[in-house]
């Protein structure tokens, strides 16, 4: 396949100032007439050919300025339309008529049908599946869209912008016209047509304009859209308050569809969502679902400024909109919920998804320099690490200068397609700082590591930190440059208070942040009489790994007393991880794993500490996941030994704290009506993690079954079902609960996803057979991304012992399934295939089997560009 390179960017010879589209919708043969106002860029020779992108298109006709072109005037293939001699005039009108078949489109890119609703997905390069176009994000055009459809088939006709007329046509057809005054790139185009139910509301902006809000869902599901609407209005208010950003059209619409390749899409004024991130009530959605809905509604809405008003010059700049918008949605959730809890959750996600990416064969910089298939770069690195980089800019500049920089960014680049350099420049301009070393965070892949050791000299009253940075090699980047790492820290005294110091040498230290810029820095704090415990990377100020020589006493002390709540959580989490890794080694050495009472008792103390929020306590009690432990071990991974170590620690904690956990569990029972708010969700999460421990003790199965039966919301019901299916697998109680759940929710595909997911996650060698059987279940479909991700995605990326079965059966099933999915939907298949990216860290037997599976995929015939790219990079 062709490799696209950042350095090859050049502006196009032609611009498309205006785009008028007429759709005559029909499932098998939709006619699309595009009339494009084309302008030759200044200085471009009149002889420059006009080359438009297409993808699988059928051309009907082409005309320029009203006259039909003869077949000798152009060259059309399904993937390109070339007009080798455009008119000499600098501006002309090009008319293109194409025909597309939405009904058979299972790629879910371009125009397709989901539950007989016509909808579109154009990012990144789907618009070229609708008409020939300069399908690149730096071509900004003003769109007018007329949609014609049969009234009974599609009573609702939506596109971007504001409504601009509608009416009836002959033979039971009707039409609607939409006009979007804001020039936009083609990837933000959207169309929806069908029979949908509507939830309506309105919002008055800061300057007093009224915006009509609509959320469209499958008819009959309107009552499930209330939470999403509430989240939307809160997002609109928040963006005005936090960033001074007001909404700019008369209407804002959201449509929920059942077949969608990712979470949602920020099309201008017409966001299209995976219905999983819209539909919710207590009966069908867990607290995690509510939190995701809130975050994704906010994320897509925030794109209106970061992505739509200011878009990307080219796809290498994807993080310009994605990293920044993730940062914005993180801040929104932190403000709406608990900042401390949110931060811990973010870091857990980053470590679970981005760290393994950055440490494996698919590692790439936040701003990549090359790609073969852009859809494979919507990654945790671009999104999550991209967000961390924006956060570091704020840490370095401080809140006020950061906000001033953002204001300048909106001011300076509104209406433009910008690059990362433009983004960094506004912060340099407002602060006078030099961010050139910092910019490496965008350009260099890999997770930096800091090795830290400390000494205290009481006689000299000096405390010294020795800090050394390294950045591991990543694919095609073997030599790394030194980074600028903002390391937030605290020196904590025996009373838990900050230890004062008089002076500091060896690094710039500002506002509790050490600026690491060199390979090795010795930071000396003078006037320090007592030896402090050192709390490092507070608030996770930098997305790095730390190797700290720390006394266990200090670590225990920080786990109980660090005033930075993130670092306090981290201290306990590190103690747990260290103990689990030691146990893993004991198990491999044929010994029984052993855990100290000091550790298991601390778990009890945290659980019962009423000064801490319940959600925080729940996060502390959640043991590091099997994959987290594997990542920290690094190589020679035997997932079965990790599983055994982790189960033994859970049991040890349960045994020591059984009584206390049990009475806390009783006290936390929900009283009163359900509320999805963060505090109530936090209490449920603490109670459900206590359940998890308690069911390891005698009569645990009965307790879990009772929890399941008495649950009055999906959070508790799904938690109990998980415990039963995972910890009490094979028990009659587990079988009964699974059957009950299926009977009750068999008709609700989104709820059944949880049922697939829970069974796909059951640890142990038998699960591959269960999952294989479930692919034949009536509720399962290889064509629906949510089903595939729930069953096959969960099995391959969240079931360590099941997927990594030593005989390779998990991998064989995986290879077959990836290839089956690929036939319909290459994008989803490629994403699924990343589950094997860490294959080289496995012990040799599994490693060989995993490689066989990858080779099997690689050698399949007619492999899509999407899947080929992932598999070849993974094997390289
Ligand atoms: N921008 C979209 C993602 C598009 C993915 C294309 N393969 C959703 C989002 O990040 O908001
Ligand atoms: Zn986004």
TrEMBL record:
Residue intervals of the Peptidase M1 alanyl aminopeptidase C-terminal domain: 553-876
Enzyme Commission number(s) from the entry: 3.4.11.2
Annotated transmembrane regions: none
Signal peptide interval: none
Gene3D superfamilies, alphabetized: 2.60.40.1840, 3.30.2010.30, Neutral Protease Domain 2, Peptidase M1, alanyl aminopeptidase, C-terminal domain, tricorn interacting facor f3 domain
InterPro entries: Aminopeptidase_N-like_N, Aminopeptidase_N-like_N_sf, PepN_Ig-like_sf, Peptidase_M1, Peptidase_M1_dom, Peptidase_M1_pepN, Peptidase_M1_pepN_C, Peptidase_M1_pepN_C_sf
Record-stated family: Belongs to the peptidase M1 family.
Entry-linked PANTHER family: PUROMYCIN-SENSITIVE AMINOPEPTIDASE
Protein name: Aminopeptidase N
């Amino acid at each position: 396949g062709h490799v696209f390179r950042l350095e090859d960017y050049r502006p196009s010879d032609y611009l498309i100032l205006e785009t008028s589209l007429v759709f005559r919708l029909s499932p098998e043969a939709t006619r699309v007439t595009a009339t494009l106002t084309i302008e030759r860029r200044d200085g471009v020779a009149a002889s420059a050919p006009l080359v438009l992108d297409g993808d699988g298109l059928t051309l009907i006709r082409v005309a320029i300025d009203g006259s039909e072109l003869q077949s000798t005037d152009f060259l059309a293939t399904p993937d390109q339309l070339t007009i080798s001699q455009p008119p000499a005039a600098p501006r002309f009108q090009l008319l293109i008529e194409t025909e597309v078949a939405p009904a058979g489109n299972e790629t879910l890119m371009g125009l397709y049908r989901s539950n007989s609703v016509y909808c579109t997905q154009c990012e990144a390069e789907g618009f070229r599946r609708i008409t020939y176009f300069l399908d690149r994000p730096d071509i900004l055009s003003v769109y007018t869209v007329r949609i014609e459809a049969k009234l009974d088939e599609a009573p609702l006709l939506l596109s971007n912008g504001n409504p601009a007329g509608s009416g009836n046509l002959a033979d039971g057809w009707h039409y609607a016209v939409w006009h979007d005054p804001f020039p936009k790139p083609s990837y933000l185009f959207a169309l929806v047509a069908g029979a949908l139910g509507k939830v309506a509301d309105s919002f008055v902006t800061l300057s007093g304009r009224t915006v009509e809000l609509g959320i469209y869902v499958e008819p009959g599901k309107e009552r499930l859209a209330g939470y999403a609407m509430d989240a939307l209005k809160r997002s609109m208010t928040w963006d005005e308050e936090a960033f001074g950003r007001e909404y700019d059209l008369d209407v804002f619409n959201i449509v929920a569809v059942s077949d969608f390749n990712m979470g949602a899409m920020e099309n201008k004024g017409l966001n299209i969502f995976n219905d999983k991130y819209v539909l919710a009530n207590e009966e069908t959605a867990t607290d995690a679902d509510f939190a995701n809905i809130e975050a994704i509604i906010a994320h897509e809405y925030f794109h209106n400024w970061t992505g739509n008003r200011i878009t990307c010059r080219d796809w290498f700049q994807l993080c310009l909109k994605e990293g920044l918008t993730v940062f914005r949605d993180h801040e929104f959730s932190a403000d709406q919920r608990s900042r401390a809890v949110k931060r811990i959750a973010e870091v857990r996600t980053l470590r679970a998804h981005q760290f393994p990416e950055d440490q494996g064969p698919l590692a790439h910089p936040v701003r990549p320099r090359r790609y073969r298939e852009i859809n494979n770069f919507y990654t945790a690195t671009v999104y999550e690490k991209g967000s961390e980089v924006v956060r570091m800019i704020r840490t370095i500049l401080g809140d006020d200068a950061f906000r001033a920089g953002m204001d300048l960014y909106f001011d300076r680049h509104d209406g433009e397609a910008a690059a990362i350099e433009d983004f960094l420049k506004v912060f340099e301009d407002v602060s006078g700082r030099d961010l050139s070393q910092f910019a490496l965070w965008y350009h260099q892949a890999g997770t930096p590591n800091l090795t830290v050791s400390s000494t205290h000299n009481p006689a000299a009253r000096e405390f010294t930190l020795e800090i050394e940075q390294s950045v591991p090699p990543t694919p095609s980047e073997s030599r790394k440059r030194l980074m600028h790492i903002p390391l937030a820290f605290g020196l904590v005294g025996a009373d838990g208070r900050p230890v004062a110091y008089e002076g500091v040498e060896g690094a710039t230290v500002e506002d509790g942040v050490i600026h690491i810029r060199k390979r090795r820095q010795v930071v000396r704090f003078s006037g320090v009489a007592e030896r402090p415990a050192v709390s490092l990377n507070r608030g996770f100020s930098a997305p790095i790994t730390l190797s700290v020589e720390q006394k266990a006493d200090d670590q225990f002390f920080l786990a109980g007393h660090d005033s930075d709540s993130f670092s306090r959580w981290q201290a306990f989490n590190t103690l747990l991880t260290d103990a689990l890794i030691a146990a893993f080694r004991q198990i491999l050495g044929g010994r029984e794993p052993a855990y100290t009472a000091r550790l298991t008792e601390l778990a009890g103390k945290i659980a019962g500490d009423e000064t801490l929020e319940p959600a925080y306590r729940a996060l502390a009690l959640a043991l590091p996941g099997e994959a987290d432990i594997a990542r920290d071990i690094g190589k020679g991974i035997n997932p079965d030994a990790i599983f055994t170590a982790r189960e033994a620690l859970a049991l040890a904690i349960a045994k020591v704290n059984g009584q206390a956990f049990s009475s806390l569990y009783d006290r936390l029972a929900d009283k009163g009506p359900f509320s999805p708010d963060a505090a109530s969700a936090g209490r449920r999460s603490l109670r459900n993690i206590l359940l998890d421990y308690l069911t390891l003790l005698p009569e645990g199965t009965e307790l879990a079954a009772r929890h399941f039966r008495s649950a009055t919301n999906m959070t508790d019901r799904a938690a109990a079902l998980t415990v039963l299916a995972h910890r009490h697998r094979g028990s009659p109680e587990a079988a009964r609960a699974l059957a009950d759940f299926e009977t009750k929710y068999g008709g609700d595909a989104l709820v059944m996803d949880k049922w697939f997911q829970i069974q796909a996650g059951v640890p142990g060698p038998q699960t591959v057979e269960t999952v294989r059987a479930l692919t034949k279940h009536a509720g399962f479909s290889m064509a629906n991304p949510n089903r595939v991700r729930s069953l096959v995605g969960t099995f391959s990326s969240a079931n360590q012992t099941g997927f990594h079965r030593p005989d390779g059966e998990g991998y064989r099933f995986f290879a077959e399934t990836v290839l089956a999915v690929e036939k319909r939907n290459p994008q989803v298949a490629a994403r699924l295939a990343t589950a094997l990216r860490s294959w080289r860290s496995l012990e040799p037997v599994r490693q060989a089997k995993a490689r066989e599976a990858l080779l099997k995929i690689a050698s399949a015939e007619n492999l899509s560009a999407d899947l080929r790219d992932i598999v070849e990079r993974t094997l390289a």
